[in-house]
């Protein structure tokens, strides 16, 4: 099995890991109520509950 001959430097390791950071969630306004919602998620607003133009969760009340 192949084994590295020399240790990789810290800068080389850091360059490789430069794209491993977490990226913030993309939020979009709900077309019905305007609440910021992540993509492909039912609107969590208690009076809305829409997804893809349909009411998925009925409002309580």
Automatic annotation (TrEMBL):
Domain of life: Bacteria
Biased composition (Basic residues): 1-18
GO annotation (BP), single: translation
Gene Ontology terms for molecular function: structural constituent of ribosome
Keywords: Ribonucleoprotein, Ribosomal protein
GO cellular component, one term: large ribosomal subunit
InterPro entries membership: Ribosomal_bL32, Ribosomal_bL32_bact, Ribosomal_zn-bd
Region (Disordered): 1-29
HAMAP family: Ribosomal_bL32
Family of the protein in this entry: Belongs to the bacterial ribosomal protein bL32 family.
Official protein name in the record: Large ribosomal subunit protein bL32
Organism phylogeny: Bacteria, Pseudomonadati, Planctomycetota, Planctomycetia, Pirellulales
Gene encoding the protein: rpmF
């Amino acid at each position: 099995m192949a084994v590295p001959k020399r240790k990789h430097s810290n800068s080389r390791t850091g360059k490789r890991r430069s794209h491993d950071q977490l990226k913030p969630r993309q939020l979009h306004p709900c077309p019905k109520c305007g609440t910021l919602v992540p993509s492909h998620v039912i609107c969590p607003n208690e009076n809305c509950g829409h997804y893809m133009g349909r009411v998925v969760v009925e409002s309580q009340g």
